[in-house]
Amino acid sequence: MTRLSVNINKIATLRNSRGGNNPDLIQVALDCERFGAEGITVHPRPDERHIRYQDVYDLKKVIATEFNIEGNPLEDKFCELVLAVKPAQVTLVPDALGQITSNHGWDTIINKDLLIKLIDQFKSAGIRTSIFVDPVLEMIEAAAETGTDRIELYTEPFATEFPTNPTTAVAPYRKAAFRANQLGLEVNAGHDLSLENLAFFKANVNPLHEVSIGHALICDALYYGLENTIQLYKRQLS
Ligand SMILES: CC(=O)[C@@H](O)[C@H](O)COP(=O)(O)O
Ligand SMILES: NCC(=O)COP(=O)(O)O
User: Fold this and answer.
1) What is the ipTM of this complex?
2) Domain 3-236 is in which class?
3) Cα–Cα distance for residue pair 101/45, rounded to 1 Å
4) Which residues are part of a known binding site for 1-deoxy-D-xylulose 5-phosphate?
5) Disulfide check for 3: which of 49, 95, 177, 210 has CB 3.0–4.6 Å away?
6) Cα 214–212–97 angle (5° rounding)?
7) Residues 6 or more apart in contact with residue 177 via CB below 8 angstroms
8) How far, in Å, from the CA of 155 to the mean position of ligand 1?
9) Over its length of 238 residues, how does the chain's per-residue pLDDT go in tens digits?
10) Ligand 2 atom nearest residue 192's Cα
11) Cα-to-centroid distance, 190 and ligand 2 (Å)
12) Which residue is closest in CA terms to ligand 1's atom 11?
């Protein structure tokens, strides 16, 4: 089974654009769960341009499915936030300050000692860990040596190449998931997954424990409505 975790960053972007509380992030998270989402993902950034740190504390109080917090552990408040909130999962992402969106995975070889320390800290607090990586075998092998529970495969390159050459686009991900599985790592995936490319990705990448999807899903919800959209995405994963 592949779980669908809905990333609600874009709901917070819309809310923040007018300074009030419309749409209500907490209500949207609860509705995503009611409509079938198996998890909620947020990726707070230091500029709080979408998810605010306070949102993360507020969400934790109400979320009944799996709460996944993504972010860079080198940012000032990130580790403190995650350790206080204790989500089901933390996904470590090596984004630079001010980056528009995530655009690469960790170099798990160069950062291995740092990652070992962080993973130990989060796992000791009972939080499942995931490391955001490109589908490169050496990076996955080094990730396994950090003690992490999972990796999250960064899927933007797949999504970009998918329309012209789906088989070539998915090949590195298929190999990466296979190797991760051999090493005892569970596999998540995310970034630019969509209604168009998700079923093909799922059919080729095994095992796949969770996908986190935000941008395309929220765009689709403008046309199909949130409930229908979540059901459409879940159908791609069944
Ligand atoms: C790690 C990842 O791929 C997503 O969390 C993505 O970076 C979402 O962040 P933004 O919504 O800020 O683009
Ligand atoms: N981890 C990926 C994620 O949470 C959502 O990425 P996107 O669907 O907004 O590109």
Assistant:
1) 0.97
2) alpha beta
3) 10
4) 45, 50, 101
5) 210
6) 70
7) 153, 187, 205, 206, 207, 208
8) 11
9) 999 999 999 999 999 999 999 999 999 999 999 999 999 999 999 999 999 999 999 999 999 999 999 999 998 899 999 999 999 999 999 998 888 999 999 999 999 999 999 999 999 999 999 999 999 999 999 999 999 999 999 999 999 999 999 999 999 999 999 999 999 999 999 999 999 999 999 999 999 999 999 999 999 999 999 999 999 999 999 9
10) 10
11) 5
12) 9
Q: How far apart (Å, rounded) are the C-alpha atoms in residues 170 and 176?
A: 10
32 phi and psi, to 5 degrees? -55, -45
Whose atoms come closest to the Cα of 46: which ligand?
Answer: 1
- Tell me the CA–centroid distance for residue 219 and ligand 1, in Å: 15
Secondary structure (DSSP) of 181-228: HHTT-EEEEESS--TTTHHHHHHHS-S--EEEE-HHHHHHHHHH-HHH
Active site residue 104: no
Separation between Cα atoms, residue 237 and residue 1, nearest integer Å: 8
Q: Which two tokens stand for residue 27?
A: 């209500």
pTM value surpassing 0.95 = yes
- Of ligand 2's atoms, which has the minimum distance to the CA of residue 9? 9
Cβ of 220 below 6 Å from ligand 1: no
Residue ranges of domains in the chain: 3-236
* Å from CA of 58 to ligand 1 middle: 20
